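chain below, 758 aa
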Amino acid sequence: QICNQHNAEAPNLEQAFYRMAQTEPNLDHDISWFLLPSYWAKMVVAFISFLCFANSYDGDFVFDDSEAIINNKDLRAETPLGDLWHHDFWGSKLSSNTSHKSYRPLTVLTFRINYLFAGGFYPVGFHVINIILHCTISVLMVDVFSILLGGLQFSNKGRRLNLAPKTSLLAALLFAVHPVHTECVAGIVGRADLLCALFFLLSFLGYCKAFRENKEGHNFSVFWVLVSVILGAIAMLCKEQGITILGLNAVFDALVINKLNVLELIQKLLHKDKSLENAGLLRKGLLFRITLLMSGGASILYIRWRIMGTGPPAFTEVDNPASFADSLFVRAINYNYYYSLNAWLLLCPWWLCFDWSMGCIPLIKSVSDWRIIALAALWFCLIGLICQALCSEDSHKRRILTLGLGFLIIPFLPASNLFFRVGFVVAERVIYLPSIGYCILFTYGFSLLSKQAKKKKILAVAVLGILLINVMRCALRSSQWRSEEQLFRSALSVCPLNAKVHYNVGKNLADKGNQSAAIKYYREAVRLNPKYVHAMNNLGNILKERNELQEAEELLSLAVQIQPDFAAAWMNLGIVQNSLRRFEEAEQSYWTAIKHRKKYPDCYYNLGRLYADLNRHIDALNAWRNATVLKPEHSLAWNNMIILLDNTGNLAQAEAVGREALELIPNDHSLMFSLANVLGKSQKYKESEALFLKAIKANPNAASYHGNLAVLYHRWGNLDLAKKHYEVSLKLDPMAPGTKENYNLLRRKLEQLQKKGG
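prediction:
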């Protein structure tokens, strides 16, 4: 609704405009709810939204945070800023065939700023920004819902009037406390959805500002329309869903600004009625604004397509099994079932899971599957709402229902599998924006019930109860997102058929050293998904460490058979074959791993160990040198080079390699120790002593450090110091090889010296 300016000098004109607006149907008339001034309403929403997720502020990096943040080189200062515009969300080149193609450079930029300000990977700063973003978005929702539910109307001073203060507050509270938002707020990678939502809403509010000086739809600001398009582009650079705001702005323009009756328009088009202009389609400015929005959107999508470089990302069947089904019927029916699950998560967000893939939701393959009921219920509700949105004689009802459905459906389209395959089955993060539409429909339904109810306060108390339950659910779910152990275990009851859930629980246990429990979960993951090569690889690794080499080899062989380019499994298979003394097969496995992953320093390191065992010293040194070229901080490869050169009598070369290594890794005590041994043999006692002492300072409980320093002092003639460090070494490790014999020799020598002195 756009008001005209009349009698600008009249007193209390703003109140007059408000009274005029109130003569139109207004949801606030029908509900029993809190009426707060705009400032206080926003303060309440901000506080409640903060309360929901505050306990996630000191959580760890969990799940996808490792790949998107900790392992993402784009966050580090040494990576040029320009690289962010050529890499995907995970730090891979967009031109790579293995790229995820998720282009979100502005989100990655905020991660980088977080990292630089914190001086490292400290999760608190990342979590705090996410919480602040959600609070800000929830506050903006008060203004957005006041427009969507109450209409757009300005005073003569250009100030927007809030014609639905009670319902806009209720809808904003519903949005702020919805538990399905927990993944976006408590999971740091959810920053993409939060930033996208922020600029999505700013684009909508900017578009509304274009009509501040409007008179009956004839005047508007081209500047603010263009600002809205730019903000939509920024939203898309945070996450792909952001582009959908341009379509929603067009829908809003047609329904609210131009009061378009969609059903009437369709009828006139079908009958080729010449009075289309009266229907609002050709009203001055509408086509021009929609052309601006469409041109902007098409330009943004074209640039995005050019930057992406290649085709869409290559997902696997376990990521989205329905999209790989041969039958169109199976694909369609399962896609619709996924939609119904998303709708259920909005209605009843109790069963939440960090991952819904890998068998969590078995495919529907026939109409006899009882889950067909969910599809029927979804479409029964949607068709009913669409009919009301199109056919109702109440223009106010048509507008609210259409906007509600628009905000529910349009932002969800990129995740719907309709235009391209997506890499998930259900993802709670993608319904952050569609939940706006849900909140509109819920609030409108509440107003209709209130209108019919005799005891409105009882209904209001029920809604308050829902809000309170959601707040508690948010707090509980946020606490589960604080650590991987809690997050992964919480999924076991929701998705017991999900192999990835069992895999992640097992991986978490293995990282904590609980191998026996990890084996149980890895076995269950492989049972649920017999082609789960990552679970086979990790299980094979644990069995290898437990010296159960036969089963380890079987698992790793099966993994590379299923996925022949799985480089890590090839390397681990080589390690097992080496342990089984099948050296030729091990060498072949290592080279196969390197063929599939050219830059694989760990594989070169293990290949070097194989060559060292075979006394192929030159090959071993070359392999370790390759490892250090690919990964200059590869301490084990440097150490092995120094030790091999030392053992073969090449002291000068060993010393040169040791000094080179310490320049690159100056604080590595194991390198100090190895170089100190070489210097001691070269009779550079003073320098050797300094390195031994520095290594001991860094790692005082290493018995070998004290033992070898004692040997140095023994050779050097500092017998008292030698005795002291022999004793420390034996105290730390009474069974240290050679130390006891050397200590006894020293004691006899000291006794002889005492007798001579006596």
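Residues 204 and 655 are 66 Å apart (CA to CA). The longest helix spans residues 123-150.
thats it, cya
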